[in-house]
Structures are given as structure tokens and as C-alpha cells.
Design goal:
The chain has three domains: 23-88 and 98-222; 255-400, 2-Layer Sandwich (Alpha-Beta Plaits); 427-664, TIM Barrel, CATH 3.20.20.450. The longest helix is centred in the first third of the chain and has 64 residues, at 182-245. The strands form two sheets. Strands 6, 7, 8, 9, 10, 11, 12, 13 and 14 form a nine-stranded mixed sheet that branches. A five-stranded mixed sheet has the order 2-3-1-4-5, with helices on both faces. 59% of the residues lie in helices and 13% in strands. It is built from 23 helices and 14 strands. It is α/β, with parallel strands linked by helices. It holds the Pfam family EAL. Keywords: Membrane, Transmembrane, Transmembrane helix. Residues 411-664 form the EAL domain. This is EAL domain-containing protein. Residues 271-402 form the GGDEF domain.
């Protein structure tokens, strides 16, 4: 008999390798496996029928023919068994897939040994005297049965059953024709038809097997592809989830990931928790001087230093830019929390391999301890504490307390009432004169926002600007200030006072969040006002953030608007920035001017800034002139531009215009002690 299909474990080509094998080779391998397995079933049947046929021939007296038949059949069956054992042993011992050439070789060997077996069965007519003996019917029945069985069970590879059935059927037909007679001739013709039918059946069975095998392999490949695609999709989803929650630079949790992790952490415990917000001091100077690549390296190093100082169970993330957030279990007192914050500050302040002691990186920390799990509330409190730490001089830690609670409540009151105040003109713009010629003539005005709250009283401009930026009202507030500034420029022009410029402050947050250049230029163009009549005052912090504001400041400067650096001396300005940003004016911070006569150190600094301005041909204005003594000393230093309460206080627009008219009428000569009219 020919072959059946074999178990999958005997496959020559493992399923795992189907994606790498050609479809034709996979089908041929399946044909080989099916043919080889049928040998396991057919061989015992073949041996049994051989013995039966030999016994019948022996009983009929054909002893020699029976012995020869038995010896020939035994030899071929032994060879088939040996081939089957050798190929099965090879397959089970193989450590790698068999090559296509080996598959074809095994198929050829199987065809040859099957043909030999068919040739042995072709001797069947000799056992019954060419079908003339009484036993002829028995041998004809055995021959038909074994050939039909070979085709029905061996259709996987048609050459094998055809090789087996052709010799015995042909030999039987020849024997019948040789004996002669009409009935035997018709039987021989019938056997020829029978052979043709079996061959056709075998080929159709092989075609069906190949089609099913190819379809199975295609399904296997498709299934493998689907599994691979599913695994890839899962991997991509996991990667996307990771990147959605983690910062690509430092590997820490990003803002969204930190908030999600913090929400779960605070929800699962009733113990007090401590939230720290950390912000680097002087990092923008690192970016400006050394470039953003070095800045990124510093951020990575900072993250590693912070991680080393913190316990393993502490939640840490990069809040954004140069800010970090830390959430940990709070201690009964604030001492250990402050100690931890101080250790973090010290770790960050240590020299960096990239630039050593050439530059310095500090860090301010805002801390809030709470028993509640309200993360937005904790963030608001820690953020206010961080702001307080920066305002107190930076590079320090501030713990949220009762004093900051009052400030937070004030901020929330401002946020609540600011929209209505902007709509009802409660928020106004006042102007403070800036004097030249040693404090004797008005050269400019500074626009200062003012808000007298119905219950809270006068709101500090810094609180108003910061709250407006955080609450999303920065643009409406700036539009209001721009409108009032343009109105003042127009009023001065009508009065023939075109030499007086009007300055307005732009905070770092406004510069980064708003299209300041477009807003300012559009407002001037709409009212047909000269750009030279306006001056934009920025802080040193804004000036250092060159990546965000340089383009906007350059557009303003190219349009003819003057650029001034406010509060000069308290930040991290570099001399190159004064040229890079084409600064027109410096304003010495009031902390160095107020009480100047009593501080030798402030006197040295003021002189240095005045000399710097003279060397660079940049105007220098001294802010905070609060006494006649300060005024006189500034004059001895050669300071021409001054501003302060001793000269004039901020005042509403109408009062300011009247004040300017009086000042122009007086025309005080140089050397006098300046105007002392107060307003507001």
C-alpha cells in the first residue's frame, strides 16, 4: 500500500519555518510526510498478504515459486523498513530544517523502493500458472484489492501508488493475453481500463492533497502573520503608553504620567503626603551660553542626581522644561522634609563635568504637606511655595504655610473677579514719569497696571499679572494695557510732546505665551502711531529665554520700537545679550538705588552699570529714587535718567498729562532737585 498523512511532529519542515520556506517546498514536504507515514501502515499489510499468497501457492504445489516469491518480497519489505527507519531517525535527530534537495531525494528513494515492491507483486501470475490454476480467482482478488488500497490511501504523492500498481496490473493483463481466449482478453482489457482509472484517481487525489496542503500553509502563514501583527500592535501600544507617560529625555514620568501615578498613590493611603516642585535656577543661562545640547545633558544629569538622593519608593517626574516634581510620604514634622530638599539643592548645585565651575546651576523648591488627596490643591500650594522661594532669592526651599495660604486665597479671589473687572474698567493703567537731564525734564513714561478691588483694596501689579497669566487672561489684560498706552501716545502727540516715549512691561510668561510682536505692531498700525514712541520693558529672565523671545524682540526692534531690560542687576544677564537683543536701555533695579547713600556696595554696582551703558552707548535709568540724597548722589555719578517716588509717583492718565504740562511750563534748569509732585 502507499501512504497516509503523518503526525505533525514528524514533519520535515517545522511550522515555525513556514514563513521562511517557499510554498512549493512546504507542499512537497507534506507529500513526503504523508507517503512515509503510509509505509508504517502498508508494510505490515504487505507482509501479511505476502505470507498468505505464499501459503496458497505452496498448498497448490508451487513450492519453488512460492519460496522465490517469499524471498523477493521479504527482501523488498526489509529494504522498505530500513529506509523508513533511517529517514525517521534522521528527522527525529535533526536540529535544523531539512533542505529542499533532501526532500526531493527522499521522495525519489521512496518511489524507487515502492517500484521494487510493485515489481515483486508483478510476479503474482506465476503463483497461479498465469491465472489458469484453480487459485486464479484468489490471486486476482488479492491483486485488485492491494492495488485499489494503494491508490485510495496513497493519493498524497501519485508517483508512489502508480509505481506500485502499474507492474502487477500490467503483468496480469499480459498473462491473460498470453493464455488466450475471448474472456481472458476482455479481462485483460478491463484491467487496462482499471489501471487508467487508478492512475487518474491517484493524480486527482494528489492534486486535491496539494491544494489542501497549500491552503493549510497559507492559513498557517496568515495565522503567523496575524500573531506577529498582534504582537507588534501590543508592543507598539505598550511603547506608546510608555512614551505617553514618560519624558523622552530623562526617562522620568512626564506631567501626565506623574499626575496619573500620583492620583493612584494618594487615593490608596490616608497618610499625609508631601509634594515638592523643583525648578532649576540659572538653567536658561546654560542653554544660552553652551547650547541646548549641553542643556539637555544637564537635565539628564540633574534627573540622575535627584533620583540618587531620593528613596526608591518616591514618585518623581519631569514637570516640564527645567521643572521636576516629587511625591513622597510626609514625616510628622517639616524638618526631615526640608533636610531632604536641602540635600536635593546641594546635589544639583555640585559642579558639572561639562562646564565645571564656569557656570552654576541652582534649584528652588516649593513644598506642600497635606492629609488630603486633592492633587490640584496640592499643586497650587506647592507652586505658590516655589514662587515664594524664587522671590526670596532662589536656590532655597520654602514650605507652604499660613502666610502662603493667605496669598493663595488672594490669588483665587483675583482669578474669580478679574474677568468682571476687565469688562467694567476696574482695571486701569497709570503712568509714572521717567526723568532725564539729571532729573529735570520728563523724557518718558512707564505704564503700570492698577486694580482697586472692591473688598481687597489695591492689588499688587505683580500679583495681578501673575494671576492673569495663570488663569488665561493674559491676552485680555495685555490688550487693555496696549490700548491705554496707545491712547497716551496719541494724547502726547496731540500736545506736541512727541519726544516723550511710553514704556510698557512684558513679563516672561506673556512673552512666551502671547504673540507680543504681532499684537504690539498691529495696535500701533491700527492707530497710525510711530513705533519709536513705544518702549518694551522686559526682565533679565525674559532676555535669557532667547529661544522663545529673540524672534519676537527682533521683530519689535526692527520695527523701531525701543527695547529696555528692567530690574537689571538681579538676574543672570550676560553682556553678549545686550548686543544680541539690540537693547536700547537698562533700568537699574530699585534695590540698588533706594538708600544708595548708605551702601558702598550699591554705589560700586551703580557706577559699574553706568560705565557699562556709556561704553555700549545704552541709556541707563536708575529706578527707585526715593530721596533727595539718592538723587544728588546719582547726579555725582553722572546718571542722567531717573525714576522714583521722589520725582513723581504713578498717576492716572489725565493727572499725568496735567503733570507733564506743568513740568514743561516750569522747565527746571539742570542742577535743581527735581519735581516733587506726588499723585495717586
Amino acid at each position: 500500500m502507499a501512504d497516509l498523512t503523518s503526525p505533525r511532529e514528524s514533519l520535515v519542515v517545522p511550522r515555525a519555518s513556514h514563513a521562511e520556506a517557499s510554498p512549493e517546498w512546504c507542499v512537497r514536504a507534506d507529500q513526503l510526510v504523508a507517503a512515509q507515514r503510509s509505509v508504517t501502515i502498508a508494510l505490515p499489510i504487505n507482509i501479511l498478504l505476502t505470507l498468505v499468497c505464499a501459503a496458497v501457492a505452496w498448498h497448490a504445489g508451487n513450492t519453488r515459486v512460492a519460496l522465490f516469491w517469499l524471498l523477493a518480497s521479504a527482501s523488498v519489505n526489509a529494504a522498505r523498513a530500513l529506509l523508513q527507519w533511517s529517514t525517521r531517525g534522521h528527522r527525529s535527530a535533526a536540529t535544523s530544517p531539512v533542505e529542499p534537495a533532501a526532500v526531493e531525494r527522499q521522495l525519489r528513494d521512496l518511489w524507487r523502493i515502492t517500484l521494487a515492491s510493485g515489481c515483486v507483486w508483478a510476479m503474482l501470475p506465476l503463483l497461479c500458472g498465469l491465472y489458469t490454476a484453480p487459485e486464479a480467482l484468489f490471486f486476482l482478488a488479492v491483486g485488485c484489492g492491494i492495488t485499489a488500497g494503494a491508490v485510495s490511501h496513497g493519493g498524497a504523492y501519485a508517483r508512489v501508488p502508480i509505481a506500485f500498481i502499474t507492474p502487477p496490473i500490467v503483468s496480469s493483463a499480459v498473462a491473460l493475453i498470453a493464455v488466450g481466449g475471448f474472456d481472458r482478453s476482455m479481462l485483460a482489457a478491463t484491467m487496462a481500463i482499471y489501471l487508467a482509472a487508478l492512475v487518474l484517481t491517484a493524480r486527482r487525489a494528489e492534486a486535491a492533497f496539494r491544494h489542501a496542503s497549500a491552503l493549510g500553509h497559507c492559513m498557517a502563514v496568515l495565522n503567523t502573520s496575524l500573531e506577529t501583527a498582534h504582537a507588534s500592535a501590543q508592543s507598539t501600544a505598550e511603547e506608546m503608553r510608555y512614551h505617553a507617560d514618560h519624558d523622552h529625555l530623562t526617562g522620568l514620568l512626564n506631567r501626565a504620567g506623574f499626575l496619573r501615578a500620583a492620583a493612584g498613590s494618594t487615593r490608596d493611603t490616608r497618610a499625609p503626603t508631601c509634594l515638592m516642585l523643583l525648578d532649576l535656577d540659572g538653567f536658561k543661562a546654560i542653554n544660552d551660553v553652551f547650547g541646548h545640547t549641553i542643556g539637555d545633558e544637564v537635565l539628564v544629569e540633574v534627573a540622575q542626581r535627584l533620583r540618587r538622593e531620593l528613596p526608591d519608593d518616591v514618585l518623581m517626574g519631569r514637570w516640564g522644561g527645567d521643572e521636576f516634581a516629587v511625591l513622597l510620604a510626609a514625616t510628622p514634622d517639616d524638618i526631615s522634609t526640608v533636610d531632604l530638599a536641602d540635600r536635593l539643592i546641594a546635589a544639583v548645585a555640585a559642579p558639572y563635568p561639562t562646564f565645571g565651575t564656569v557656570a552654576r546651576v541652582g534649584m528652588s523648591v516649593g513644598v506642600h504637606v497635606s492629609h488630603a488627596s486633592d492633587m490640584p490643591e496640592m499643586l497650587a500650594c506647592a507652586d505658590l511655595a516655589l514662587y515664594a522661594a524664587k522671590s526670596a532669592g532662589r536656590n532655597r526651599c520654602t514650605v507652604f504655610g499660613d502666610d502662603l495660604r493667605d496669598a493663595l486665597d488672594l490669588r483665587r479671589d483675583i482669578e474669580r473677579d478679574l474677568p468682571a473687572a476687565l469688562g467694567t474698567a476696574e482695571v486701569s493703567v497709570w503712568f509714572q514719569p521717567i526723568f532725564g537731564d539729571g532729573g529735570t525734564r520728563i523724557f518718558g513714561l512707564e505704564a503700570l497696571v492698577r486694580w482697586q478691588h472692591p473688598t481687597l483694596g489695591w492689588i499688587m501689579p505683580a500679583d495681578l499679572m501673575a494671576t492673569a497669566a495663570k488663569a488665561g487672561f493674559a491676552r485680555p489684560l495685555m490688550d487693555l494695557i496696549l490700548d491705554r498706552v496707545c491712547a497716551m501716545i496719541t494724547a502726547l502727540s496731540v500736545r506736541g510732546l512727541d519726544h516723550i516715549t511710553v514704556a510698557m512691561n512684558v513679563s516672561p510668561r506673556e512673552m512666551s505665551q502671547l504673540p507680543v510682536d504681532q499684537m504690539v505692531l498691529a495696535a500701533l498700525a491700527e492707530r497710525n502711531l510711530p513705533p519709536a514712541a513705544l518702549e518694551i520693558e522686559i526682565t533679565e529672565e525674559t532676555a535669557l529665554d532667547t529661544a522663545d523671545c529673540a524672534r519676537k524682540l527682533q521683530a519689535l526692534s526692527q520695527a523701531g520700537i525701543r527695547i529696555a531690560i528692567d530690574d537689571f542687576g538681579i538676574g543672570y544677564s550676560s553682556l553678549s545679550l545686550l548686543r544680541t537683543l539690540k537693547v536700547d536701555s537698562l533700568k537699574i533695579d530699585r534695590c540698588f538705588v533706594s538708600g544708595l547713600t548708605d551702601s558702598a556696595g550699591d554705589q560700586v554696582l551703580v557706577k559699574a552699570v553706568l560705565n557699562l551703558g556709556q561704553s555700549l552707548r545704552i541709556d541707563v535709568t536708575a529706578e527707585g529714587v526715593e530721596s533727595i540724597e539718592d538723587l544728588r548722589m546719582l547726579r555725582t555719578f553722572g546718571c542722567q535718567m531717573m525714576q522714583g517716588y521722589h520725582l513723581a509717583r504713578p498717576m492716572p492718565m489725565t493727572e499725568c498729562l496735567a503733570f507733564i504740562a506743568d513740568a514743561e511750563a516750569q522747565s527746571l534748569p539742570p542742577g535743581t532737585d527735581g519735581f516733587q509732585r506726588a499723585a495717586g
